[in-house]
Amino acid sequence: MKTKIILIAWLTFVLSSNLWAQGSYQTFAPQGFKVRCGCSLYVNSVFITAAKQHGANNILAAYICAENKDSPETGVIVNINIYDESASYKTIKPIYHDYFEKKCLEKYAVNLSNAGYSYQYITYQGVSALEYNFDQLGVPTKAIMFYKNKKSYLLQVATRTGLATKFINLKSTFELL
Fold first, then answer.
1. How far is CA 82 from the centre of its chain?
2. Beta bridge pairs of residue 97
3. Is the pLDDT of residue 3 over 80?
4. For the segment 99-141, what is each residue's pLDDT rounded down to a tens digit?
5. CATH entry 2.60.120.1690 includes domain 23-176
6. Bridge partners, 139 (sequence order)
7. What is the pLDDT at residue 21?
8. Could you tell me if 119 and 132 are in contact, meaning their C-beta atoms sit under 8 angstroms apart?
């Protein structure tokens, strides 16, 4: 019996340590998603204000968080931005929505190319998406942009250490509700 209790206590500790290390799911029901990352996302009001000042009146949500913010070498910044694109769909017949999204991604790709960023088309969340790399104030960054349910989504991870793994983790845990 004592061995069982010790084993259960040890397993509980190991499992909870693993969950803590990976982060727990954060759910944003009004925005329709949940995600797991190693820091607590909060509203990026600075980005929202700046975006609105530059004419983006369709921003639904912008979230940001940072892990290890005191360490330039191991710090991680996560950004998630969501835009309401429904106004753009109003004059387009539903049978042309996929074509419209394809053209929007192509335009985004041209902008990335003009800025000197490398990118690739992938399938993500069952739709075509653009995944790209760039430096953000000297910090390597990976991002993905896609359209789904008349919204556009941008997920970004910036870090100097383990970027590919951290980006894959964010991408694989991002779920639309």
1. 9
2. none
3. no
4. 999 999 999 999 999 999 999 999 999 999 999 999 988 899 9
5. yes
6. 136
7. 40
8. yes
Burial of 30 (0-12, 13-18, 19+ CB in 10 A): exposed
Tally the C-alpha atoms within 13 A of residue 97's C-alpha that lie toward its C-beta.
14
Cut 0.90: pTM above it: no
Q: Please check whether residue 33 is in contact with residue 177, taking contact to mean a CB–CB distance below 8 angstroms.
A: yes
% of the chain exceeding 90 in pLDDT: 67
Give the length of the chain: 177
8 Å CB contact between 66 and 75: yes
C-beta of residue 168 within 8 angstroms of C-beta of residue 153: no
Cα torsion through 164, 33, 155, 73, rounded to 10: -50
Domain boundaries in the chain?
Answer: 23-176
